[in-house]
Write a structure and sequence with these properties.
The structure is a homodimer.
Chain A lengths: L33 H13 L5 E4 L5 E3 L7 E5 L2 H9 L1 H10 L3 E2 L4 H15 L1 H9 L9 H12 L3 H5 L20 H16 L6 E5 L5 H10 L2 E6 L2 H13 L6 E5 L9 E7 L10 H11 E13 L8 H7 L8 H8 L5 E7 L1 H17 L1 H7 L2 H20 L3 E8 L22
Chain lengths: ~425, ~425
């Protein structure tokens, strides 16, 4: 492992990681004082007294209320404690990433406790937050390109280490107990295709296609042609190579461009895991793209991380992991649909499936942490572990939701009569 | 039949029907002039040139564009034409009700054409309407009681003539082709119960229970106890008599009170067809009732007529049929859920099922029109025919939607893993 090796894309967030000079030098920290204990207790209290313990640099434990701690976070020095107090999200996130806070075990459980504490204690506080929630974000085409580059162009080799073999980086669908991640990703793609009622010969437009797994799945299994858009160059290059290898070049076209540039007509419009990066103030533009492209009897599906009530994105996630991202409520998603009177046919919440998906990613990531450290450094490994553990926890306690929304242009009656067809073997070509 | 017999509750809307002195005296109308033709053409044009014909009092036909007319409306005199021009909804509605406009056949198809014309041509006009859409409505407890009395207390004998035997007055669920109205209403109740995952021994609170069919079905088939609220005295009396006859008094309690008075705790909160009468400015109060009553691991379902985009209620429906009613969008329904961070689990749109339901009601109503005229008068018969035909047409073309929204309190993970269980035989006691 190489500690402190420079990040190939620069430091996530474009800034510099905080120094961890003190990480291996607890001896330099002053003795724990009454003020330190007060700070630790106050921080736990402001976070709704989660059942966790802060272990201070002399080994002393400060616990939240309501039972024995489910996990412990070791804080290396006073400066880190003060940083966490001043900025719980970024302070904790950066301290964890640089090793100034350690959670030797039960990281997911610790984060679940913190999120639950905030959910129950922070009603007033979170209402204040909501006032800021829908602020304008930088998601012009060029800003979007930079934001997407930051995360999705980390390198195909990196994602290949811990995603499933098809490189699907969105919520899976664990249709049956005991399914593997790879099986659940295929089940998700089939679930989406059934919801879209794809018929052989139809044409599909996909906005934000990742590494192309869904586009190729639709073409191979459902006999459709697909135009799939993405602004991540590395993803597009991977997808094109895959399409070539699978002989799908005539049926799937991967286009390196922004969703706002989408042209042409389609029978189905699908977007899985892109909306999080669009920004609510651009939802009308996305709706206009769909209105322009989707045939009168067509069908649309938008799959997105979301929330039950508006809230700003987690500041550390925004700063270090997903700049420009925002998980919307269903009400906010209405800004896509209502101006064009799209008829919402079906909404399904797959929150617990995303908990399972993130947990599987976290396990796989942990298993290759050494290799990731070789590629980047330990700060990067810890940051990504925190991101994956935090996502697992957020879906587990309901801080985040996952919505699949199926819709149709206004006025069409070519809509499914019931949803029985989603729960039977779907017609496939193979 | 008794023409012009006084309505037992007074004239719907509390006003007076317009006179139909001229209905049988077309001879008194002046000759059709160029101005009349211009008026008729302009009215069709403003309505998006639907494929219908207006037959003027001398027999002359004025047609909308785009193909041969699918239906004809006979306008008895110039005054009626001017009324319809000045106020398309109330003018037409009242003229039809009093016989000053006649549609001898294809009434549903005529209304479908009008709604489609408005939908396609009236985009700008309807955006203007939306500005007015969410205006405050009179839905305080006492106003609500008056509004509900106006419609639901027309008399159990009246509704018994044309509803199914269980007196279910909400959208049915035609689970299989060829089902009767009665079968589809049972299927709807089972669909709702499966979505709520009712377990024997649980307690259910129902807000707005109509004649009690769902409450009794839940108790009989799913082994739950129910407290069901309604402010329509006639419906509550009918429901209590039914519960007595079926030996359910110990398991279903019918309470004549407003949803705002609901108390106690429940495992499931259900409301089918009440939200239309709540008024958007009261949705927060409804959310507070649910928050207060629903146990942390409970489940809720709200079933309501809705829209794809905000629009004011049809003025004639508001004036003559359902004072104080308003069909919300999903975004507007968010005002119930988001303040309390309820997690939306599932939304299903049953629009075409309501088209079938209304069509069945219309057929059954037409079959007993003579009896209804005996009870009330022909104006009442025509008004209700128009209301049922208009509802059929509105669900057919998508002016109205039907949403079933399933939700859970924030944070609970006792939610169904998939929706498979809705599409298999559900566990029942019998």
């Amino acid at each position: 492992m190489k500690e402190d090796k420079a990040h190939p894309l620069g430091v996530p967030g474009g800034g510099t990681w905080p120094s961890n000079d003190d990480a291996s030098s607890a001896s330099r920290s002053p003795t724990v004082t009454g003020l330190d204990r007060w700070l630790a207790r106050t921080m736990l209290s402001l976070n709704g007294n989660p059942r966790i313990a802060l272990v201070l640099w002399d080994g002393e434990e400060i616990s939240g209320g309501g039972g024995p701690p489910v996990a412990r976070a070791r804080v290396h020095d006073r400066r880190t404690l003060v940083q966490m107090m001043r900025s719980p999200s970024v302070g904790f996130g950066d301290a964890y990433s640089t090793g100034l806070v350690e959670v030797p075990e039960h990281l997911v459980e610790l984060l679940e406790e913190v999120y639950l504490g905030l959910m129950h204690a922070g009603a007033k506080w979170s209402r204040l937050q909501r006032l800021r929630a829908s602020r304008t974000r930088g998601n012009t085409p060029s800003e979007a390109r930079e934001n997407i580059h930051h995360h999705y162009d980390l390198g195909n080799d990196f994602y290949r280490l811990w995603l499933d073999e098809r490189m699907v980086y969105t919520c899976a669908y664990y249709e049956h107990p005991g399914q593997s991640l790879a099986e659940a990703q295929i089940a998700k793609m089939d679930h989406v295709c059934r919801k879209l009622e794809l018929q052989s010969g139809q044409h599909v437009i996909e906005a934000g296609c990742g590494w192309g797994a869904l586009a190729m799945h639709m073409a191979e299994r459902y006999g459709v042609t697909v135009e799939a858009y993405n602004i991540s160059r590395q993803q597009i290059e991977f997808a094109r190579a895959q399409a070539h290898a699978r002989g799908l070049e005539n049926r799937v076209r991967f286009i390196e461009d922004d969703y706002r540039s989408i042209e042409g007509e389609c029978d189905a419009f699908v977007s899985v895991g892109m909306l999080e990066h669009v920004g609510t103030e651009r939802y009308g533009e996305l709706g206009a793209v769909v209105e322009r492209c989707l045939r009168p009897d067509g069908r649309g599906l938008i799959h997105s991380i979301g929330r039950s009530a508006p809230a700003p994105n987690d500041p550390w996630i925004e700063k270090r992991i997903f700049p420009g991202s925002y998980p919307p409520t269903l009400t906010e998603m209405g800004r896509i649909f209502e101006p064009y009177e799209f008829s919402i046919l079906d909404v399904e919440n797959l929150r617990l499936h995303y908990r399972e998906t993130c947990r599987a990613w976290l396990d796989r990531f942990d298993a290759v942490a050494d290799k990731v450290a070789e590629m980047y450094d330990m700060n990067f490994v810890r940051a990504w572990r925190l991101y994956l553990a935090g996502s697992t926890a957020a879906f587990a306690v309901g801080t985040l939701q996952l919505y699949q929304v199926v819709f149709a242009p206004r006025g069409t009656n070519r809509v499914p009569w019931t949803r029985h067809h989603l729960y039977q073997d779907s017609p496939r070509l193979d």
